[in-house]
Design goal:
Blueprint (H helix, E strand, L loop, with lengths): L21 H24 L3 E2 L2 E2 L5 E3 L5 E4 L4
Antiparallel strand pairs: 1-2, 3-4
């Protein structure tokens, strides 16, 4: 959310049976404002569109140490 408007959403998935720990939930809570501002910027300046076609959903994959393992071009 940025100034009361939703600019994107995040889905988190984890291999069973592990739930997300409180510190992991807190990390996403801390990142949410930055992600929302980035989503808003992409939507406003058109960087989410290439050749008139929306780039589609982006995916960022993290490893067990919370390091980026893979990123799709849309992300």
């Amino acid at each position: 959310m940025v100034h009361g408007a939703c600019w994107g959403s995040v889905g988190l998935f984890r291999e069973a049976p592990g739930d997300f720990a409180p510190d992991e939930a807190a990390l996403l809570h801390d990142l949410a404002p930055s992600l929302a501002r980035a989503f808003r910027s992409a939507a406003v300046d058109g960087t989410h569109v290439a050749n008139g076609v929306a780039a589609g959903p982006g995916l960022v994959l993290f490893d067990a140490q919370r390091c980026v393992e893979a990123v799709t071009p849309a992300a």
